[in-house]
Amino acid sequence: MMIKKGLILIELFAVMAIVVMTLSGGCKKEDGPYPQRDVFVCIFSSQGGGTDTWIRQLSALMAKDLKVNMVCTNLPGAKGGTGAMQVWSSPHDGYSILGASETSVFFGVNDVAPMVDKWRFFIAGGSQGIFAVRTDSPYTRIEELAAQAKEQQGKIKVGNSGQGKLWHIKAVQLERARGGSLKHIPYNGSGPAITALLSKEVDAVSCSCAEIAEYVKAELVRPLVVTDVKSINFEGFGPVRSAIEIYPDMETELQNLFQWLGFMLPHDVENEKLKTFEEAFKRSVESPEFDRFLQSQMARKIAMCGKQADQLVDRMQRIASWTAKELGIARKDPEELGIPRSSNH
Q: What would the pLDDT profile of 54-103 be if each residue is shown by its tens digit?
């Protein structure tokens, strides 16, 4: 209990430091080109998950390039909205940025933070999704679990990184492909969701391949199906089929929604600062260090920013928002928010 309280206090002090430093920095006139001081990165999910791992790695590479410290702190909650609002309420001066993922495309329908048109995106890459169980689970194939979910509606508990986020939606899409029903248990990130699986709080987990890979290698977890378009070969386990090999009618929805990880800055940060940040980002994601990181994460490079990234995220917001509505998990109607349907939806 004392250790937990200590960790909470440390996190609280880190958040307070961001507030103090960004507010005080917003009142100072800079004497040289951006950046002149530490940049604070607010990661909108818990420690140990995919977003946390990626943002800390990217921040380290960016810090070398920008020649300043990139100070990371985790501020999970409200489906990414707690961290997003911390950055949004700080001065829009380029010194407070968001470490984020595709979860941001749900900000509108989840009613937690400004929608994608208020941000600028720097997308590094991402990993495919996976649906997995413990190695002592009675389910060795996804078909067995799906049959049980159909027979005993709502009995199988599945952990995810948060209700209305990508891995939740992937699991819902999977259950609906077979007409079964799962009990979805949300956590503040994939790290806690995987911990819940290992501690037997839940029967399965929906997360990224990168987040589960070490547990598969250690023979603690058994992957059942990839919730994306390509099969994956796990070290120490072997090949795992894509869901579309089993349920071909899922192909379109699996192609339309996928993981991406990177940074977000408020849209009205000065153009010169955005340009400097963009150039450093491009150099970082093209570095040999980042290529090695991608390999370790079983991930693909996207390396996208500027208008191209903004267009990708806008398209994903349309698909994600209407998918969330159709699955009955949207808090706000995308039509009321002015989010049109995507032509590919």
A: 999 999 999 999 999 999 999 999 999 999 999 999 999 999 999 999 99
Q: Which domain holds residue 245?
A: 129-256
Closest listed residue to residue 42, CA positions, set 6, 67, 78: 78
What's the gap between Cα 31 and its chain centre? Answer: 36
Question: Is 338 among the domain residues?
Answer: no
Show which of 205, 231, 256 is a domain's final residue: 256
The answer to whether residues 120 and 133 belong to one domain is no
Q: Any idea what the CATH number is for the domain that residue 84 is in?
A: 3.40.190.150
What's the total number of domains in the chain? 2
Per-residue b or e along 214-232, where b marks 16 or more CB atoms closer than 10 Å to that residue's CB: ebbeeebbbbbbbbbbeeb
Distance CA 318, CA 344 (A): 10
Please check whether residue 145 lies inside any domain of the structure: yes
pTM: 0.82
pLDDT confidence of residue 343: 64
How large is the average pLDDT for residues 208-216? Answer: 93
Q: What is the DSSP string of 96-131?
A: EEEEEEGGGGGHHHHTSS--GGGEEEEEEEEE-EEE
26: pLDDT confidence band, cut at 50, 70 and 90?
Answer: very low
In this predicted structure, the answer to whether residue 270 has a pLDDT above a threshold of 60 is yes
